[in-house]
Every structure is written in C-alpha cells, then in structure tokens.
C-alpha cells in the first residue's frame, strides 16, 4: 500500500516549521539525549491519523515506509511519549501557541 500522500503531510509539517516547533516545545519530555525527537514522534502520530490510523499500533503502516518517513518510533516509544506529554504540566498547550506569530498567520 502506498503512503505517498501521507508523506506530503509530513513534509508540509516540516516545511512550515511545525515539527521543529513541537520539538522545541516538548524538549522537556525527552528523557535521553539520544533517542526519538518528541516533535517527530508527534508529527508521525498525526500523519498516521491522517492516513486513517486509529491507534498507536497503526504507526506500523508508516514505519514500514522508511524511504518516505525515515525512522519512525516504535509503538511503545510513541505511547510513552504521549503519556509523558499528558503528564507534564504545561505541555498540553493549544496548537496555536506552538508556532511563532508569523507562522500562525496574521488572520488578515
């Protein structure tokens, strides 16, 4: 099964700075210097949902497409990341506050 359209979602998130903004905002939840970037994990979860996934284990569909998505976190790593984000005070900020002003658009 092709996931090329889903790869476009990931590329757009990277291009507009969403993945980087997520990484910076969620840096506090990363437990090891090495390991998966929290912004990438959340981006990959969003791509999985856009691709029709319904649970963390559906990450396997994009994990199998490493030419399109690169390294994708394991199901357990993604679950732990979501759990850490949910239990870290201040990390459940509305998405609009993740992006710097110009990236959000001026609304005009």
Write a concise keyword list for the protein shown above:
mainly alpha; 108 residues
Sum this structure up briefly.
With 108 residues, the protein is an all-alpha fold. 54% of the residues lie in helices and 0% in strands.
Shape: globular
- Total of domains: 1
Low-confidence regions: 94-99, 102-108
> Would you report the number of β strands?
0
Number of helices: 7
pLDDT averaged over residues = 81
Q: What structural class is derived from the secondary structure elements?
A: mainly alpha
**Cα-atom radius of gyration:** 14 Å
Bin the strand percentage. Answer: under 5%
Helix content: 40-55%
Alpha-carbon distance between the termini? 40 Å
Instruction: Write the element-wise H/E pattern from the N-terminal end onward.
Output: HHHHHHH
Largest sheet: none
Structure description:
By secondary structure, the protein is an all-alpha fold. It has one domain. The protein contains seven helices and no strands. Helix 1 packs across helix 3 and helix 2 packs across helix 3. The protein is globular and about 35 Å long. 22% of the residues are buried.
What is the fold's blueprint, element by element?
Elements: H1 4-15, H2 18-25, H3 38-50, H4 60-63, H5 66-69, H6 75-87, H7 101-104
